[in-house]
Every structure is written in C-alpha cells, then in structure tokens.
Amino acid sequence: MVIGLVLTHWDTQLGPLIMARYPNNFQVSKDEINKILMTHSISKEMTNEIVEIRLKEKIFLSYCPKKQIPVNGYSMMIIVLHLNEELLFDGIKNQLNEIGENLFNRSGNEQIKEFHQYASKFFQKKSSRKILFIGSSAVGKTSIKKLFFEGIPSESLLDLPLEPTYGLVQFNYDWLDLDLGVADLAGQEMDHFLNESFESEIDPFDSVDAILYIFDSTYWDTNSREIVQHIQKILDINTSRDLKSQFFVFCHKLDLIPTYDQQSFKNEIKYTLPASVQSNLFFTSIKSDMLHQLIRSMQVVIGTLSPQTNYLEEILFETISEKRNTAVIILNEKRILLSASTEDFKIINYSHIFSFISSMNLLLDDFKSEFTQLQLKGNRFNLHFSSIEWLSEGECIILISECLSFKELSLLKESIQYSLIYLETSYEKSSDNLNIDQKNSSK
Ligand SMILES: Nc1nc2c(ncn2[C@@H]2O[C@H](COP(=O)(O)OP(=O)(O)O)[C@@H](O)[C@H]2O)c(=O)[nH]1
Ligand SMILES: [Mg+2]
C-alpha cells in the first residue's frame, strides 16, 4: 500500500530539500519532486491543495500549504503509493487535508515530530500474541484451527480424520495486526501439564495470551467431572502463575447432540461449570450449517487480542446498524476474517461462501485474471462481492441483503472502505483499553 512519505521544502538556491522521510531509507528523486512542484504551481490560487501525479508504477499525493508560500516558500508533504491502490485515495486525501493543515502550522522539530508520528501509522508493526488450544484427544482442536485459520472446508475435515497431534505444536498465522502463534497441545500430554508436580522443559502456558479449552459434547454425559476438573486446573494455573490470559471454553461437536436436546444440554453445562467461565463459554461445531457460531466464537477470542479486529467489527456493525436483513463478510484469501449481520438476517451457511469463493478463484485462474467485482441477483436477495484495499493484499468483501439494491450495497462497501483508512490511526487507542501493552510489559 503506502510505500513511503517525505516532507520537502524548496530552497531557492539549493532546490528541493528533504526535511524528513519515512521509512528512513525511503527515496524520492529530485526529478520527481520537481514534477510535483510544477503541478502545484499550475494553479495560481493561493489555497492549500493536494495534487496527484502518476509516474511509472507509483502515485504521488502531495499536500502543499500554498497560503504559506509568500512567507515560507514551497513546502510539501508527499505520500507515495503503488499504482493499484486507487481505492485508498479518498480516505488518504481527507486525512492529508487534516494532517497537512496541522503539520504546516508548526515549525522546526515540532513539524518533523508530527510528520514521523503520522507517517509511522502506515507502517505499524504487528504484535505477537499466542493462543493455546488445549483439550483431550480427538475433541476437534486441530479441526477448528485448520478451519478458522487456514480456511480448510469442513467437509474435508470431517471426511478425513486428521493425524493425531503429538507434543506441543505451534503454528504462526498472520492475522490483521497480529502475528498470532497458535499452540496445539496434544490430548495425551494435557493431563501431565495440568499436574502441578509435573516437570518438563516445555511449558505450554509460557506467555500465552488466551487459553482455549475444548471438549467434546458427547463426552459430557460420562466425563463431566473430568471436564470440570480440567477447567478448574486451568483456572488455577492462570491465577497462581499470574498469566493474565483470557480463558475460553468451547463445548464442541454440538452437531452430535440431537437438536431437540440442545437447549437443556446447554443449560446443564452452563450451570455445572464455574460461574467465572460462563460468559466465555461457546457451543460450536465445524458442521457446515453451524459454522456461523464457530466463526463468531473465534472472532470473540481473537477480538480480545487484536484491537484491529475489534475496530473492524465495530465498523461493520455500525455500517449495517440501520439496515434490515443484511450481512457483511470480510475475507482474506480463503479465510473469513470477520462477519456481521443484522439480527433479522437469515443465518447462512458459511461453507457455501467458502465453496463459492474457491470456484470463483478457479474460474479466475482459467482467465489468469484478478478479481475485482461480482454482483449476484437472486429473486430474494442481492449480493455484492468485491476486492477491498486494506493492510495486506487479497482481502475481499461480501455484502448480502434481502432489502438493499446493488447501488445501496456498493455505497455500503464504499463507506466500509473509507472507514478502513482511518482504522490505522485509531486502533492504537483501543489497545490501551485492552491493557494488552501493560500486560505484556508486566510479563
Ligand atoms: N461431528 C463432528 N466431528 C468433528 C467436529 N470437529 C472435529 N470433528 C472430528 O473429530 C475428529 C478429531 O478431530 P481433531 O481435530 O483431530 O481433534 P484433536 O485431537 O483435538 O486435534 C476428526 O475426525 C474430526 O473430523 C465437529 O464439530 N463435529
Ligand atoms: Mg490434534
């Protein structure tokens, strides 16, 4: 997306001077700056302006405080983007107008400090967080992980039993603002690790930010005592070692409990488990018609670690809040990053979305073409599917509505796209709310 930013001043004797740049090895040539300056000088009106020029594979957006030219001469703040990032423009231009005004009213070091602060927002580093999946063998830990983080369809996970996991295995996933480590503790070893006197060189609880205990719904009848004991031991470890990690319980494979029994089954579990886990207890399944619940639950888990996930979720819910029968889903390649729907929206089968996308990708491969947009008109719904420009590449958005027209759906998409630009600058604040940084520094 953004390649770099420079703050330049035109010196009448020396020509263009670079006052500040970000990243610190970022280069803009004299020739490029000259062309930008010439473009600014076309209009004789002395109002602050943004110009946009395209040179080779790059786009330069330049803010010039022209009101100050009579006193200070020409100064410019230039943002350089890849040529294919046009969707970001409106958002960045608006930001530039605000920031530019503020920046050029300051002088010297203050101005440079402000520039660095603004520029660095485009290059946020990812934070490392770790989730531990823990639970007896064959309860579905690896399946949940593969489905949610790797976008492997449920059908193939259900048809082909996975190799059992041995020991402690950690996988790393890129997840918005997170570099997320997901550790999968094999069932066989869990009992050892929950036993305080057990000594080992590996410590599965070392610097975990979230612990996810998973049990199999069908074990409850015969093994509820053991399940409660596991949960109690994990709670004890969390407190006695001062891990400060979030704790979640997934009662998984709910599809194996007959539908007519599910409500009383859920109630029984709720009242048997310690009160402190009740708000973090979820009933899940990878069966395709129950995927929405699993995805929602995983979103809650990740939301406690990732400020950006929270913000994005807020944006999605806000955008659709006044609408009816509408849902929005954001995908990254094969994975569903986030979804939100209005309460009256009919629950859809997410596995159909997965297969829809994978056939789309196959078709595009045939044409060696990149995906941009698709509209689908059913007699009861409209669907808008398009790529969306954001932090990383390959994000797509799907909007489905039983009430809104194509035009309205594409306006909703634009408004989400627009809010995403501001996400970068605002999500820092929310990490304070979550106390994640405090937590890490106390570790
Ligand atoms: N019916 C049903 N089977 C599941 C579900 N999730 C996983 N499984 C199956 O349970 C078995 C064990 O899953 P796995 O992920 O290997 O469990 P792990 O040992 O906890 O990692 C596999 O055969 C999966 O296909 C589910 O939600 N419902
Ligand atoms: Mg496993």
UniProtKB/TrEMBL annotation:
Coiled coil: none annotated. The keyword Ribonucleoprotein does not apply. Keywords: GTP-binding, Nucleotide-binding. Pfam families: Gtr1_RagA. SUPFAM superfamilies: P-loop containing nucleoside triphosphate hydrolases. PANTHER family: GH16429P (PTHR11259:SF2), RAS-RELATED GTP BINDING RAG/GTR YEAST (PTHR11259). This is GTP-binding protein.
